[in-house]
Amino acid sequence: MRQVPMAGINALKGWGLKSLTEDELDQIHVATLDVLQSTGVFVDHDEALKIFEKGGCWVNKKTKVVRFPNHLVNEAMAQCPSHILLAGRDKAQDFMMGGREVGFTPFNTGALTQDLETGEIRDSNLEDVKNMAILCDALENVDVASPPVSAEDEPESYRDLIGCAVTLPNTTKHIAMDAESGDHCQKMIEMAAAVVGDKETLKYRPIVSFGVCPTSPLQLIDECCAVIIESAKNWMPIDVLSMAMSGATAPIPLAGTLVIHNAEVLSGIVLAQLTNPGTPCIYGTSTTTFYMKTATATVGAPEMGMISAAVAELAHYYEVPCYVGGS
């Protein structure tokens, strides 16, 4: 089991910034429940609509808008495990996610890389995916070996699959993958099951996890729902990560952005819990502010740091593990 290095007997696990009071967390939660119940979320996936309706949500089949009763959201969040084992092929590389333990992983699937030999900025390729897996495996401070680049030289229709196939044998650490569809998610699960022996073993020692992004504002599109459902059916950890942008796809005030972000993440987690209660869910964020001058998401902006600190507190409020994307 990997442990965060600490100096001294009384050292704290990780560090943190308490940016919100309990009253403020309560206010964000109540506002989120109001958005989910009154406005709802657009869900573009037939099976997900059926799952939501069967679970007790109000589903408008014509508009595909799902509205969530308050009690249903609270019950779903209570079903989430507070700690998640992100298993490695080597048990010594296992990482237990949860509480205030801090770990590190690369951000997934960039399309560009700097060539290590020439310094050229170019499209990443399959060899880069392999080399990054080897590098992640060697770096002590990397706890989870998410592929930081993608195989841009491979057909887009199966780029994620071949990236998984190349990463699995080249690291002994846990792998966080982006699957482009429910079918691809299932194929990656089958790859991982072949590595550990069978699906039952994989259930208790998940060497892969998956990430999805709701589409801001307040949408769960087809691919997002499919991967959540497939992950939940197979007990694989699922990271529901919002990329809302303050001033573009979310309100300019950061408190309003946090409410939209929270509603998107909670809607995905509710889908996972209705599919399979107890599914290990990760509360994710790469939410930031929108720079109107260049029409870009400013990952290095001070506002992103403020949002990320607040989101970490929200995850602790719900007692679920948290993933924060940074620069």
CATH superfamily: Trimethylamine methyltransferase-like
**How does the overall form come out from the CA principal axes?**
globular
Average pLDDT number: 93
User: What is the tally of helical segments?
Assistant: 10
The secondary-structure element order is HEHEEHEEEEHHEHHEEHEEHEEEHE
Biggest sheet, open or closed, and with what strands and sense? 5 strands, parallel
The domain count comes to 1
Helical content class? 40-55%
Q: Which assembly state applies to the chains in this document?
A: single chain
The CATH top-level class label: Alpha Beta
Any idea what the radius of gyration is? 19 Å
Question: Could you name the key traits of this structure?
Answer:
four-stranded mixed β-sheet, single chain, 327 residues, TIM Barrel, 17% strand
Q: How does this structure look, described?
A:
The structure is a single chain. Mean pLDDT is 93; it is low at 6-12. This protein has a single domain (42-324), classed as Trimethylamine methyltransferase-like (TIM Barrel). It is globular, with a radius of gyration of 19 Å. It is built from ten helices and 16 strands. The longest helix has 22 residues, at 254-275. By secondary structure, the protein is an alpha/beta fold. The strands form five sheets. The chain has a five-stranded parallel sheet.
